[in-house]
Amino acid sequence: MGGRAQPACGPVGLWAVVGLGVLTIGLGIVSVVAANWDAIPGETRLAIHFALMIGCAVLLWCSLAGAAAKDGYCSDGLLFVAAVLGLTFFGHVGQVYQTSSPLWQPLLAWLIIFSPLLLLFGRGWPVAGLWLAGVIGTTWSYADEYGLWSWGRHMPQPAFPTLFWGLIGCPPMAVAAFAALIRDRSDRPAFWRVLELLAIATILIGLTIVIIVGQWDGRSHGMVGSVAIQSLALIGAAAAILSVRGARSGQAMAGILVVTAMVHFADALLLAMHGPIRGPWIGALFFLILWGAVAGGALFARQRRLFQGAIALLAIRIIILSFELNDDLLGNGAGLILSGAFAMAVAWVTVRISRRYAPEGRGGE
Asked: With contact defined as beta carbons under 8 Å apart, do 135 and 175 qualify?
């Protein structure tokens, strides 16, 4: 693409060092305060906390008003610290004044206040991950009032449960679509790419957990209508990504989301008709389809590391399946031998395929 070169998000190692430094400073501050916590009056603690926020805001103003692109790592670290200070300030106020508001209310207030700052100036995965975690945490905290994590306990139900439980799982899809649409219109495309990938990773991890819980635990209470809403949201996110990125990476990502929608709906439909599934085959089949689609999409987009990671997950799942299918010691021993040989063969084939079709340095967008 034409135009001036855009600053990249930077190497992972450098971002890890920056994140480690920020984390170390934060832990040091927490340790100093915690050592004298009971001796400090609540109002004094709040005043110190607020002063730290003001000082961080001044540093941010000086950093972001200047050459933010040239000093991206420093400004991102300050953004992260400022957002964490703001988030903990709400909890600090609640502790000092003994407020009893639900968790989602301070989280929502934090999102409203800090989202413009994080989304307008963020450049790397720490800021993107923090904002996405805030979105998901706010949504799930609100859903917990209706029993999201309260298995087996009687909880009040929303007015329209099918719509409510359908929409409550859609924020990662909305974030992925939003990031894809903004990406090419922003002077920080790397940030929006990271946010999009984090949202898609959240979707894949979430569905993987749903498959595992639905198979092994048997406590899935998902409604087909709710899952249909989430599946439509997945297809909508795929359409948004494909509309702005028709290259291999966009096609691969859209294809992965479409397969994810199909697996999610098929799993819910089967649970609705059959009830909790105790056998190992169905859950393993859905897992293999999901991550097989990820591996195929990564190979199509020439994403070497993603392809190898997806294949590794598939191999591990097949090894686990061999344990589930063999009850006696001799069977387990033979199954282990076959599974080990299979894993080695998969590793060899994966390396050969990735070298030929996804060579190093030929990733997607």
From this structure: yes
Q: Are residues 152 and 166 in the same domain?
A: no
Q: How many residues does the chain have?
A: 365
Q: Residues with Cβ < 8 Å from 116, sequence gap 6 or more? A: none
* Same domain assignment for residues 116 and 256: no
96 within 8 A of 42, measured Cβ to Cβ: yes
Distance CA 29, CA 151 (A): 38
Residue 252: φ, ψ to 5°: -65, -45
Per the structure block, which two tokens stand in for 174?
């909305």
Of 156, 179, 209, the domain-final residue: 156
The answer to whether residues 302 and 169 belong to one domain is yes
Concatenated DSSP letters of 259-306: HHHHHHHHHHHHHHHH-S--SHHHHHHHHHHHHHHHHHHHHHTT-HHH
Q: Would you say residue 224 has pLDDT above 50?
A: yes
Q: Are residues 36 and 106 in the same domain?
A: yes
Say if pTM beats, i.e. exceeds, 0.90. no
Of 156, 174, 202, the domain-final residue: 156
Greater confidence (5 vs 100) lies with 100
The count of domains in the chain is 2
With 0-12 / 13-18 / 19 or more C-beta atoms within 10 angstroms meaning exposed / middle / buried, residue 360 is: exposed
How far apart are the C-alpha atoms of 127 and 115, rounded to whole Å? Answer: 10
Is 167 found in the same domain as 101?
no
- Give 4: exposed, middle or buried? Use CB within 10 Å, 0-12, 13-18, 19+: exposed
Residues 135, 258 within the same domain: no
Residue 9: pLDDT band (50, 70, 90) is very low
Give the DSSP letter of residue 40. S
Sign of CA dihedral 302, 306, 310, 316: positive
**Is residue 183 located within the same domain as residue 312?**
yes
How far, in Å, CA of 110 to CA of 115, rounded?
A: 8
Q: Which domain holds residue 65?
A: 1-156
Q: pLDDT tens for residues 275-330?
A: 555 566 777 888 889 998 998 888 888 887 888 788 888 878 877 777 666 654 44
- Kindly tell me if the per-residue pLDDT of 179 is higher than 90: yes
